[in-house]
Design goal:
By secondary structure, this protein is an all-alpha fold. It is built from 4 helices and no strands. The protein has one domain. The chain starts with a helix and ends in a 12-residue tail after the last helix.
């Protein structure tokens, strides 16, 4: 189950990278229409939250440290913040205002935060997988196995 958690974290991080790519494509598409950001919206409101929730479920079943569980679900929890920023910034209005554009800048910053949180979960999952791979070698040599946090256990 920990391997599944790791794979889901990889997919989640990749989906967030794709999200930035889709935003770039939409931002530079001319002329922009109502459907210009559809792929970006679909990925951000369906794929990323689904992967985050599935990875969280896998983490809970695999009994990974609570910190990793929290980081993994935090990705899904930050998605409504993205939607709120869009709403307050008036993204779907016909005309933008200076204040709305300033608020929309936080959409990118929150997206970066989401990516950093997903990266932290991915690095934690990778560290767990690495520690797990080293356990058989350590027990074969008679050394005590180390947990992902570095403590002997």
């Amino acid at each position: 189950m920990r391997k599944l958690y790791f794979v889901l974290c990889v997919l989640l991080f990749a989906a967030i990278g794709v999200q930035f790519y889709l935003a770039g494509i939409a931002a530079f598409t001319k002329p922009q229409t109502d459907s210009t950001f559809d792929a970006h919206k679909m990925n951000g409101m369906m794929i990323i939250p689904a992967l985050s929730v599935l990875a969280t479920i896998a983490a809970i079943i695999a009994k990974v440290p609570r910190k990793l569980i929290g980081l993994t679900i935090l990705v899904a929890a930050l998605i409504p913040v993205q939607i709120l920023i869009n709403t307050v910034g008036g993204r779907d209005n016909a005309h933008s205002s200076t204040g709305g554009v300033a608020v929309m800048g936080f959409h990118v910053i929150n997206g970066l935060i989401i990516m950093l949180v997903a990266r932290a979960a991915l690095l934690g999952a990778r560290q767990m997988m690495k520690a797990r791979a080293e356990e058989p070698a350590a027990t074969a040599t008679g050394e005590p196995a180390q947990s992902p946090t570095g403590s002997v256990g």
